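thought: user wants a sequence for this fold. calling inverse folding tool.
action: design(structure=
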C-alpha cells in the first residue's frame, strides 16, 4: 500500500497545495517564500500527508530543517506514511532522520503496519539507519502493536530482528541481535562516524590502544604488498564484501556471513569480534570505547584496497 502510494504521488500533486509541491520537489526558495507569506506548515493533505512527510520522503534535508524551524509538527501521523520519521525510515534517508530526531521525533510511534520506524528500517535493510535509531535510544526488542500472525504491507510482526530476517536482511538481523541480545552493553556508532578523527584512528591502529592490542600486530592497512601479518591486508575494508581480506585464510564463519562491511557492522565487530561473529579467527577482546572504534573505522575508510 505504501509503495503504491508513493508511485501515485505525481497524480496527487495536482490536488496538493503549493507548500506540499515545493517540499516534494526540493524547492527551498519556494518553501522559504511560502513560509514568509504565512502558509500553514501543518496543512494536512489527505493523500500526501503533511509537507514534512514529502520533504522526508524525498530526503530534502534543508527543507526538513526549514519546516521544523517554522513550527512543523515532527510527530504528525498519516494513515499511509506514518510519521515523517517512519517515512524517512522506509526510504533509508538517514540525514533527514537526524534532523527529525533532533527536532523531537519520537522513536516509539507505531506506523501503518503496526511496526515502528525501527521495524520498517530493518525490514528494508537500511543498516545505517537502524544503527542511528539504536544509538538514539530505540528499543531493539520493541514489539509491533498488533497481535497478527503474518505480513502486513510486507513487514513481519513481532520484533525488528524478525522484520529484517523475514525480508532476507540477515546482516541487519545479526546487528539487532547483537545490540539487543547476548547480554552485551555495546554502544552503536550512531553519528560518530561522520565526525570521527581519521588521523587519531590511524594512530590508534598503529598502537596507542595498546592495552587492547595493536591492530598492526595482525593487519596492514596502507600497503597492499605488506602481507606479513596473520590477519592480512584490510585496506579498503569499508564497503568491501566480507571474507575477502588479502594475505590470510579467512575463517569459514567470515566466508559464510555475506554482505559488505558497513561502519555500523565494523563498530559491532571491533567491540567484540568473537561475540559478534562466533567462529571468527580475530581473537581480540575488542576495542571498548566507541569513539576509539569510530576513529579507527574512519581511518580504514581512507585506505584503499589493492
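)
observation: tool returned 306 residues.
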Amino acid at each position: 500500500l505504501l509503495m503504491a502510494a508513493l508511485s501515485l504521488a505525481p497524480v496527487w500533486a495536482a490536488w496538493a497545495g503549493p507548500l506540499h509541491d515545493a517540499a516534494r520537489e526540493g524547492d527551498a526558495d519556494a518553501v522559504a517564500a511560502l513560509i514568509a507569506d504565512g502558509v500553514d506548515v501543518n496543512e494536512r493533505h489527505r493523500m500526501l500527508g503533511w509537507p514534512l512527510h514529502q520533504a522526508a520522503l524525498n530526503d530534502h534535508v534543508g527543507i526538513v530543517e526549514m519546516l521544523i524551524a517554522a513550527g512543523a509538527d515532527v510527530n504528525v501521523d498519516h494513515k499511509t506514511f506514518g510519521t515523517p520519521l517512519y517515512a524517512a525510515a522506509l526510504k533509508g534517508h538517514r540525514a533527514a532522520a537526524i534532523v527529525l530526531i533532533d527536532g523531537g521525533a519520537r522513536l516509539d510511534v507505531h506506523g501503518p503496519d503496526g511496526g515502528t520506524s525501527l521495524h520498517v528500517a530493518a525490514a528494508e535493510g537500511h543498516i545505517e539507519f537502524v544503527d542511528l535509531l539504536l544509538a538514539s535510544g530505540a528499543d531493539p526488542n520493541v514489539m509491533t502493536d498488533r497481535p497478527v500472525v503474518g505480513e502486513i504491507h510486507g513487514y513481519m510482526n513481532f520484533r525488528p530482528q524478525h522484520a529484517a530476517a523475514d525480508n532476507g536482511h540477515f546482516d541487519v538481523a545479526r546487528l539487532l541481535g547483537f545490540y539487543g541480545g547476548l547480554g552485551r552493553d555495546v554502544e552503536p556508532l550512531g553519528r560518530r562516524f561522520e565526525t570521527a578523527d581519521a588521523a587519531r584512528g590511524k594512530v590508534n591502529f598503529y598502537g596507542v590502544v595498546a592495552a587492547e592490542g595493536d591492530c598492526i600486530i595482525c593487519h596492514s592497512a596502507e600497503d597492499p604488498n605488506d602481507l606479513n601479518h596473520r590477519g592480512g591486508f584490510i585496506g579498503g575494508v569499508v564497503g568491501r564484501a566480507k571474507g575477502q581480506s588479502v594475505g590470510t585464510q579467512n575463517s569459514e564463519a567470515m566466508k559464510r556471513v555475506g554482505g559488505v562491511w558497513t561502519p555500523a557492522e565494523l563498530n559491532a565487530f571491533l567491540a567484540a569480534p568473537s561475540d559478534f561473529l562466533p567462529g571468527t579467527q580475530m581473537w581480540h577482546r575488542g576495542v571498548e570505547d566507541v569513539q576509539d572504534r569510530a576513529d579507527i573505522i574512519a581511518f580504514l575508510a581512507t585506505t584503499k584496497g589493492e
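thought: summarizing for user.
answer: Here is the designed sequence. Strands lie at 151-152, 155-156.
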